[in-house]
Design goal:
The protein has about 290 residues and is mainly α. It has helices at about 5-25, 30-50, 60-75, 75-90, 110-135, 140-165, 165-190, 210-215, 220-225, 235-240, 255-265, and strands at about 205, 250. It has a domain at about 5-200. It contains eleven helices and two strands, in the order H-H-H-H-H-H-H-E-H-H-H-E-H. Helix 6 crosses helix 7 (about 165-190). The radius of gyration is 19 Å and the shape is globular.
Length: about 290
C-alpha cells in the first residue's frame, strides 16, 4: 500500500460490497441499506482518489482495484479518467470543460441546478466517451481497451444479477450505484458553481469541516486542483498554505450549513443567496 491512510479507502470498498451481499442473502435491512448508501459515496471518493494516486505501489494491483471499483459502482474507471483527468483538470472548469456548471442554463447556484447537473453532465459525457473510444480503438490505446473491458464486465454483472432477481438488483445494486454516481457528478456543482473559472485562485469552493473526515479530504478542492498528484491525506496541509489567497466566500466551514443556506433557505431569505464570482476581483481587504 502506497499510504496507510488508504486503509480507510479499502474499508469503504469492503463495507459497500459487504452490505450488498449480506442483504442479497439475508434480506433487506434499513440499517445496512443506510450504510450501503453512505459507503456508495465513500467508494466514489475512493474511485476519484485512486485515479489520481493509485492505492498500491504495484501497477497490477492498481489495475485490479480499478476493475473492482468499476464493477461495484457501475462507473468505468476509464470514464472517470477521461471525464475528470483528461477534461476537468485540463480545462479547470473553463469554457472547454465539458462539465462546467454554467454550461447548462447559465451561471447559477441553486437546488434545481444541483439536482439536474449530474443528469446534464452524464448526457454530454457519454457522447464524448463514445467519440473518444471510436477514435482511439483502431490504435488500441489503453483508454479504449480499459473502457471496453470495464463496460463489458459491468454489463455481464448487471445481466447476471437481473436474471437472478431483478427486484433485488434494482433495490440493492442499481439504486446505491445511482446514488453514488449522482454524488460523484453533483460534487462538481457543489465545488464550482458561481466560482470564477478565469481566476487562478477562485475557481473552486472548499469545505473545511467534518466532511473531510468522512470522505477523505474531498473538501479541499483548490489544493487538489493545484496538486493533482498529491495524496489525499496531504490536502489539508496544502490547503492551509494556499487558502490566504482565496476569496473567503469560497472557504466554507460546514458542508451542511452551506447546503442548507444555499439550496433551502436562500429562496426565502435573500441574504443566503449565492453570488457569482465570475469576473470579480478579490476584495482589497482580504
Amino acid at each position: 500500500m502506497r499510504n496507510w491512510y488508504d486503509i480507510q479507502s479499502i474499508t469503504y470498498i469492503v463495507l459497500y460490497v459487504g452490505f450488498i451481499i449480506a442483504q442479497w442473502q439475508s434480506g433487506f435491512s434499513w440499517l445496512m441499506y443506510a450504510g450501503c448508501l453512505f459507503c456508495s459515496i465513500g467508494v466514489q471518493v475512493v474511485h476519484h482518489n485512486h485515479i489520481h494516486v493509485g492505492i498500491w505501489h504495484s501497477k497490477r494491483l492498481n489495475n485490479i482495484t480499478n476493475l473492482l471499483i468499476s464493477i461495484s459502482t457501475a462507473v468505468p474507471s476509464a470514464m472517470v479518467y477521461g471525464g475528470h483527468l483528461r477534461n476537468h483538470h485540463v480545462h479547470q472548469h473553463g469554457p472547454e470543460d465539458e462539465t462546467r456548471t454554467y454550461r447548462f442554463g447559465g451561471d447559477h447556484n441553486h437546488l434545481l441546478g444541483y439536482m439536474l447537473h449530474p443528469i446534464q453532465a452524464y448526457c454530454v459525457l457519454i457522447p464524448k466517451f463514445y467519440r473518444e473510444f471510436r477514435n482511439e480503438w483502431p490504435k488500441r490505446t489503453r483508454f479504449s481497451r480499459d473502457l471496453l473491458l470495464q463496460v463489458c464486465l459491468i454489463g455481464i454483472l448487471w445481466f447476471g444479477l437481473l436474471i437472478l432477481d431483478w427486484r433485488k438488483f434494482i433495490l440493492l445494486v442499481a439504486i446505491p450505484q445511482a446514488f453514488g454516481l449522482h454524488w460523484l457528478l453533483g460534487s462538481n456543482y457543489l465545488q464550482h458553481a458561481h466560482c470564477d473559472d478565469e481566476s487562478e485562485v477562485n475557481y473552486a469552493r472548499n469545505f473545511t469541516g467534518a466532511v473531510n473526515l468522512f470522505w477523505m479530504n474531498i473538501g479541499f478542492h483548490t489544493a487538489h486542483h493545484d496538486h493533482p498528484r498529491a495524496h489525499w491525506s496531504t490536502l489539508r496541509k496544502l490547503h492551509h498554505k494556499e487558502c490566504q489567497a482565496t476569496d473567503p466566500r469560497l472557504c466554507c466551514d460546514s458542508f451542511l450549513v452551506y447546503v442548507g443556506r444555499t439550496f433551502f433557505l436562500s429562496p426565502f431569505l435573500p441574504v443566503y443567496r449565492s453570488v457569482s464570482l465570475k469576473g470579480s476581483k478579490v476584495p482589497s481587504d482580504i
